[in-house]
Amino acid sequence: MGCREVHAATVLAFLSGTASVAGLLAAVLLPNWRQMRLYTFNKNERNVTVYTGLWIKCARFDGSRDCVIYDPQWYTAVDQLDLRVLQFALPLSMFTAVSALFLCLIGMCNTAFVSSVPNVKLAKCLVNSAGCHLVAGLLFLLACAICLTPSVWVIFYNNYLNRKYEPIFSFDISVFIAIASAGGLFFTSILLCLWYCACKSLPSPFWQPLYPHAPSMHSYASQPYSARSRLSAMDIDIPVVTHAS
């Protein structure tokens, strides 16, 4: 695996992470985390389904797409613990994943545009692309855990509500989108960590730039004049000129 060039694994990880963040954004904005279906025994009326999201609540009649009741201030009065936790967890997971994407992009740009042998004066200041990918992989894993745990909890909390009240609650499509996005974040993390493990045998330290050989001051700087002046006459090859008789 070419660790000193942009590899297909890192590009695939970046695309997978971007798609996962887009999925998280859709799950956050959609009002489809929980459905509460209200039945009526009056033949002249229709059943009502209440769609509950993290920020808004919408009530619709069966067969209608319009909201009979639309509550845009629902986020301030959420009375369900799992949704309240998700209001904090999913934005935090998105922020962590976006930070990981930024680090991954820095690693790829550093690999693509930085020369293989850096300036010795800047060697300690440059960023190692492999180190960027490793930290990005760990951040993706953290974002996955932050997203997955409360998303799965919605399923169990939904069963709790059905036991406590009536079997009228069901989880909606946003739960599946969030879990799928968490799976994408986990896949991205594993891909980046595997890429780093394939490169860890390189002589470069964890956060130092990648180059063919480990740099040393003696490789780029010539010996000072005082070192040469200490050479004895026996070490200096002086040509001897003889005259023919």
From TrEMBL:
Regarding the membrane, this protein is recorded as: Multi-pass membrane protein
InterPro entries assigned to the protein according to its UniProt record, in alphabetical order? Claudin12, Claudin_CS
Q: Gene3D superfamilies from the entry?
A: 1.20.140.150
Which sequence ranges are marked TM in the entry? 12-33, 88-113, 134-156, 176-198
Keyword Transmembrane helix attached = yes
Keywords noted in UniProt: Cell junction, Membrane, Tight junction, Transmembrane, Transmembrane helix
Compartments, as annotated in UniProt: Cell junction, Tight junction; Membrane
Q: Which PROSITE patterns match?
A: CLAUDIN (PS01346)
Quick check: keyword Transferase in the entry? no
Superkingdom of the organism of origin: Eukaryota
List the record's Gene Ontology CC terms alphabetically.
Answer: bicellular tight junction; plasma membrane
Which family does the entry's similarity section mention?
A: Belongs to the claudin family.
This chain's protein is named: CLD12 protein
Native source organism of the sequence: Bucco capensis (collared puffbird)
| Lineage summary | Eukaryota, Metazoa, Chordata, Craniata, Vertebrata
